[in-house]
Every structure is written in structure tokens, then in C-alpha cells.
């Protein structure tokens, strides 16, 4: 459930995202989840990949600024209300969610969601205690 996310800091200019995804494709890095947050001048590209150390090294060698962050990848039923139930667990246990995004391909009727929470260990314990402990095939 705990997994490593790669954050890439990049200029907010035409072609920069294409450059990064092209580099990762050339180096055979398979993207499992992708999200981007931007401002007028820069963006933060967040990635979940099978081998985060390798992906980070590829990006660093190409001159990008990249860092690793531990996040929770939670598998839940793909049905209305499933995300609300998980959010309720975090709320009841006072776990602050900094951001979240979904994984590109869930399996077997499951929806996989990545959570960046303030207290990773507490969040992970709550998820396991409540049956959200199916390992993800990242």
C-alpha cells in the first residue's frame, strides 16, 4: 500500500511534458499514475512507476529536478461511494489528505487511488485495519 511517487519540477512551457514522457518511454519506464499541478511559471509532475529509483535516476541524468515521496496507493471497490468511505475513515482518524489522484488502470472491479497524507504510517494502519490492504500491481 505504501509506494514511492516521483515528483518532477518543470518549467510551464510548450513541449516540456512531451520531453519528459518521451525520455521515460525511451528508457522503458512504464507509467502507472500521472498527475500534474501547475502555476504560471512551473509545474509539478507526479508519477507512480514500477521502479521509482530507476525513473528518478533517468530524470536526474537528463537534468530534471526530481525527488521521491512516500504515498499511499489504496485499492477500493469501483462503485459509487467507495471513495467517500475511505475519506470518512481518514476524517474520523484525523488524517489530513494533502492531495490525491487515481491510478491509470485498476483491475477486477477495483479503483486504485494515490493519497498523499500528512501521517503516512497512521494512514497506512487505518487502511489495513479497515480492509484496504490488497497489494497493487504497480
Descriptive report:
The protein has 138 residues and is α+β, with helices and mostly antiparallel strands. It folds into 2 domains: 69 residues, VC0802-like (2-Layer Sandwich); 59 residues, ACT domain (Alpha-Beta Plaits). Helix content is 30%, strand content 38%. It has 4 helices and 6 strands. Strands 2-3-1-4-6-5 form a 6-stranded antiparallel sheet. The relative contact order is 0.22. The model has no long low-confidence stretch (mean pLDDT 88).
State the secondary-structure class: alpha+beta
CATH topology of the largest domain: VC0802-like
Relative helix content: 25-40%
User: What topology, given as strand order, has the largest sheet?
Assistant: 2-3-1-4-6-5
Beta-strand share of residues: 35-45%
Largest sheet data: 6 strands, antiparallel
CATH architecture of the largest domain: 2-Layer Sandwich
Contiguous low-pLDDT stretches (5 residues minimum) are none
Elements, N to C (H/E): EHEEHEHEEH
Give the strand tally: 6
Query: At the first level of CATH, what is the class of the largest domain?
Result: Alpha Beta
